[in-house]
Amino acid sequence: MSDEQGRFAIGVIGAGMGAKPHALALQSLSDTINVLGVYRRNRAELDSFCSTYGFPAAESYEALLADPRLDAVLVLTTPNAREEIVAAAAAAGKHVLLEKPVERSVAAAERIVAMCDAADVKLGVIFQHRFRRASRILAEAIAENRYGRLEAVHLVVPWWRPQEGYYDQPGRGTLAQDGGGVLITQAIHSLDLMLRLCGEVKAVTAMAATTRLHQMETEDFVSAGLEFDNGAVGAMMATTANFPGGPESLTLNFADASATLTAGNLTVQTRNGETITEGEASQGGGGADPMAFPFDWHAAQIADFADAVDHDRNPVSTGHTAMHVHRLIDALMRSSKEGKRVTV
User: Fold this and answer.
1) Spatial CB neighbours of 166, under 8 Å, sequence gap ≥ 6
2) Domain contains 2
């Protein structure tokens, strides 16, 4: 497969608000990745998107999947519209790169992962925070055990989303479309990164609520205690009710140092007095504009996925790794509903 110039050939399905960083990323990768077509049901908005970014419009996602040159599809639809598309892609033997979350529920997400496994197509899930330079540096240090045993974790996602212009959009913050609120739509990125760096959570004790700042079906505030498989303990808070919004922060306390990731910046303070800083000048999408972040993390993840397909390896973020954060979110919401400690 691939196009006439030997570039990885991809189709894009869905081109709403969250598509901008993907489009910019694909433009930056045009030497190695070719966008064969973009499909969105709203034709006027599709034409506007394609005109803005210089991509060809597709008549349908079925037409994209029927193109023999196509290697993979990038699916950017709302979560409730994905299962049918992924099923069709898997049946056509096309690899799938999917915007988070995999689906609205653990059961539906597991079905998508299983159908890609059965069809022997690769399933990647967009978790671009894994590809931040600071995240990679800390992951390498942890893998090399530079700071000793992990003992405690503290995650804060103090974001803001306005009612007008965000939650007033049809379907936003509903179970039917999104599958939940701040956890599955916003904090899922930070939770996934936490799991990648810290290992699995074995139990949670949580409280979820909808503040009086929003009128929505699902939660805009969650706090929880966390118990990790490796014996570490932790706490997390995530909200979209923190006006005007601030950067997410993940602090890891090790035996010999503490490390804090704040958006794309890393600060490590060792017990022997050394301070290590690594950073990048960027916002994190914590304020009213949810797209206020660079596209280079998306570019790195798309490039990783294409390379994984070309070399028949697993991408950094797969459907199977995504299931860990899905099960954690499910446990957090069950714990709040049942008012007790819940195992993941």
Assistant:
1) 172, 288, 290
2) no
Q: Is residue 293 part of a domain?
A: no
Which residues neighbour 305 within 8 Å (Cβ) at sequence distance 6 or greater? 72, 95, 97, 122, 124, 315
Spell out where the chain has E strands: 8-13, 33-39, 72-75, 95-99, 123-126, 150-158, 201-209, 221-228, 233-239, 249-254, 257-262, 265-270, 275-278, 342-343
44 and 103 fall within a common domain? yes
Q: With residue 134 as reference, give the H or E element that holds it.
A: helix 133-143
Token pair recorded at residue 178: 């999104």
Q: For 79-115, write each residue's pLDDT tens digit.
A: 999 999 999 999 999 999 999 999 999 999 999 999 9
Q: The whole model's pTM is what?
A: 0.94
Residue 149 class from Cβ within 10 Å (0-12 exposed, 13-18 middle, 19+ buried)? exposed
Do 29 and 158 lie in a common domain? no
318-341 residue pLDDT tens: 999 999 999 999 999 999 999 999
Give the integer Cα–Cα distance in Å for 195 and 317.
12
| Token pair listed for 290 | 């949810």
> How far is 31 from 37, CA to CA, in rounded Å?
16
Whose tokens are 């196009």? That residue is 3
Contact 155, 194 (CB under 8 A): yes
Name the one residue in this structure whose structure tokens are 């049901």: 41
| CA atoms of 20 and 230, how far apart (whole Å) | 38
Residue 55 lies inside a defined structural domain of this protein:
yes
- CA-CA distance, 2 to 88, in Å (whole number)? 19
Q: Which domain holds residue 169?
A: 130-288+324-343
